[in-house]
Amino acid sequence: MKILITGGLGFIGSHTIVELMQAGYEPIIIDDLSNSEPFMLDNIQKITGQKPKCYLYDACDKDRVRNVFAENTDIKAVIHFAAKKAVGESMKQPLAYYRTNLVSLLTVLDLMQEFKVGNIVFASSATVYGEPEKLPVTEEMPLQKSLSSYGSTKQMAEDILEKTTANHWLKAILLRFFNPVGAHHTALLGELPNGVPNNLMPYVTQTASGIRKELTINGNDYSTPDGTCVRDYIHVVDLAKAHVKAIDRLLKTAETPVCEVFNIGTGAGISVLEMVETFEKVNNIKIPYRVGPRRAGDAESIYASCEKANKILGWKAELSLADMVRDSWNWEKYLKDRKE
Ligand code: WQD
User: Fold this and answer.
1) Closest residue (by CA) to atom 5 of ligand 1?
2) What are the average pLDDT values for consecutive 10-residue runs of the chain, which has 340 residues?
3) What pLDDT sits at residue 130?
């Protein structure tokens, strides 16, 4: 069955393509390479033995995306990843975030309605919870006001999907990702940050490889055990597998609700310092760091209850923090070797 994946060459998208192919689906990719490079498609082929159809288009470009639907009339579902996704950056460029993240979703939904494609899995985010009042967060908890424009775009997108599915031409599964890190065990897929990484893990691996002089930890005066922010880091391959489970549920399970939300995390809260120390221990590398000011838009502490995904999707994270830091480092070494 054909599945259209927007942002399919991105960090999470590329890993999801591999898992979909290995589960017997036929993915079709739309990606404008704004957050990826062409070699990612070659590496998907190296891992799976097949090169999926790929359109190097902007997901906001309605005429071009319409061509994709017209050329692939048997698309059964869409997974929508295409979006800008850095919390810190979104505070500096709010308009670019609202435009890209909302126009791309509206474009895809318009065309899904036009071509009668009635199933979507949407890449939502833990940032929709804002600063949660209670931990771990569950899907039923009321959403606090988002702390970043990025989180606001995800809250708005969820609202658009909830109201659209009420008209019953569309079924949606919203996956609220926590913090995706790690890389494919083959070291052929991983995160490709543009310029200076916004996210913690790529900044750590680039410091380890000497590209960055030292890591700046954004604040250690939070009321957490060691003063640094707590997140629910999840291995990108576990996250990719959750997407396959969501597609299975939409396409192979009768009588599901028209719009379902699932937390996709591990349930474990890990601090910035704990992540750094785990990286150092597992990879036997020292990470020089200094403590800087807090970063605007950061929640102090957030981690998930994933009971609902365990029970209903039959999905549970299996890879450990050690796997995450080892695979991230192997990927960074692969990138360095590629450049040499
Ligand atoms: C984690 C912690 C930083 C860099 C991410 C993605 C977002 C969404 C949710 C999917 C924070 C600190 C970071 C650095 C640091 N994912 N940090 N020094 O902000 O939780 O959001 O997950 O939807 O797309 O951005 O992740 O890795 O940016 O930050 O101290 O150089 O690490 O301040 O406390 P975040 P992050």
Assistant:
1) 179
2) 97 98 98 94 98 97 98 97 90 95 98 98 93 93 88 96 94 97 98 92 97 98 98 98 98 93 98 98 98 91 97 98 98 93
3) 85
Predicted pLDDT at 49: 98
In a domain, 203, yes or no: no
Q: Ligand 1 site: residues with CB under 6 angstroms?
A: 85-87, 125-127, 177, 179, 198-200, 203, 215-218, 229, 231, 272, 295, 298
Residue type, 157: A
Q: How far apart are CA 152 and CA 154, in angstroms?
A: 5
Which among 12, 36, 6 is positioned nearest to 183, based on CA atoms?
A: 12
Structural domain includes residue 163 = yes
- Identify the three-state secondary structure at position 205: helix
Closest CA to 182 of 126, 231, 238, 230: 238
In this structure, which residue's CA is closest to atom 32 in ligand 1? 200
Structure token digits, residue 263: 């937390």
Integer Cα distance of 166 and 144 in angstroms? 23
Domain count within the chain: 1
Calculate how far, in angstroms, residue 230's C-alpha sits from the geometric centre of ligand 1.
10
Cα of 94 to ligand 1 centre, how many Å?
17
CB proximity list for 22: less than 8 A, separation 6 or greater: 48
Q: Domain span at residue 8?
A: 2-182+233-265
Residue 321 lies in a domain: no
Of 12, 23, 89, which Cα lies nearest the Cα of 247?
Answer: 23
Alpha carbon 295 to chain centroid distance?
21
Which residue's CA is minimally distant from atom 13 of ligand 1? 200
Is residue 61 situated within a structural domain? yes
Contact between residue 240 and residue 281 where contact means Cβ atoms under 8 Å apart: no
- Report which secondary-structure segment, H or E, holds 160: helix 149-165
Buried b / exposed e across 173-183, counting CB within 10 Å, b at 16+?
bbbbbbbbbbb
